[in-house]
Design brief:
Layout (H helix, E strand, L loop, with lengths): L11 E9 L3 E10 L2 E11 L24 H9 L6 H12 L4 E5 L14 E8 L8 H12 L16 E13 L9 E11 L2 E10 L4 E13 L9
Antiparallel strand pairs: 1-2, 2-3, 4-5, 5-7, 6-9, 7-8, 8-9
Helix pairs in contact: 1-2
GO molecular function, one term: fatty acyl-CoA hydrolase activity
Keywords: Hydrolase
Pfam family, one: Acyl_CoA_thio
Length: 235
């Protein structure tokens, strides 16, 4: 991501056929607005091929989504707290008002008002809202790309909750698609941050199907700038 995009201006996409092979093909894409690149992408495609060399990590053992609260329900619980500071109340109401086309159920929701450092790991059940159906797999991949960016970089901030965020934006985002999936079915999103430093954070993620199959792997690096002085909770 080179510079911020402008949602009011059409995007011109330049696609270069970098390589077309028998098994693999590569396309390089440049998105342009106002005469300058705002985004570059390299996409690699492979014909389906079988192989005896197969393995994957084991999906984490977590409660099923039917036993967990949605993000909206969790926020509503916080809003019912009569001692909630007005600044937090406005922030939560703003989140509630956003029309996010994703169903999200945190597995271990953090106390959003606590400043105690936490391990840089998160688990969510996620799915697209509405019905997509048995359509072209590329549609589900596009929807998963949108879902995978939600709250991803914030994983790197969990050990540093005492600092107020000044600026945070992703620099790049990579995805590897391993197995077919339905983006409108519940998937477990496992996020972790192995490193942060130099005003940057690195996060990695895995999208698991409910049957334990690893469907997608993600990675993202972003800019994270915070106020130098830690702040105190004013709940």
């Amino acid at each position: 991501f080179a510079v911020p995009g402008d949602p009011k201006v059409p995007v011109l996409y330049e696609v270069e056929r970098t390589r077309t092979g028998k098994s693999f093909s590569v396309r390089s894409v440049k998105a342009i607005q106002h005469g300058q690149p705002i985004f570059t992408c390299q996409a690699s495609f492979q014909l389906s091929q079988g192989s005896p060399v197969q393995h994957q990590f084991t999906m984490p053992t977590v409660p099923p989504p039917e036993e967990l609260l949605t993000q909206e329900e969790l926020i509503q619980k916080f809003l019912q707290n009569p001692n909630l500071a007005e600044r937090y109340r406005k922030h939560l109401n703003k989140i509630q008002a956003e029309d996010v086309p994703i169903d999200i159920k945190p597995v271990n929701p953090p106390d959003i008002f606590s400043l105690e450092p936490q391990e840089p790991k998160q688990l969510f059940w996620v799915r697209a809202r509405g019905y997509i159906g048995e359509t072209d797999m590329k549609v589900h991949c596009c929807v998963a790309a949108y879902i995978s960016d939600y709250a991803f970089l914030g994983t790197a901030l969990l050990p540093h909750r005492q600092y107020r965020i000044k600026f945070m934006v992703s620099l790049d985002h990579s995805m590897w698609f391993h197995a077919p999936f339905r983006a409108d079915h519940w998937m477990l999103y496992e996020c972790e941050s192995p490193w942060a430093g130099g005003c940057r954070g690195l996060v990695q993620g895995r999208l698991w199907r409910r049957d334990g199959v690893l469907a997608v792997t993600c990675a993202q690096e972003g800019v994270i700038r915070v106020e130098q002085t830690p702040h105190q909770s004013k709940l």
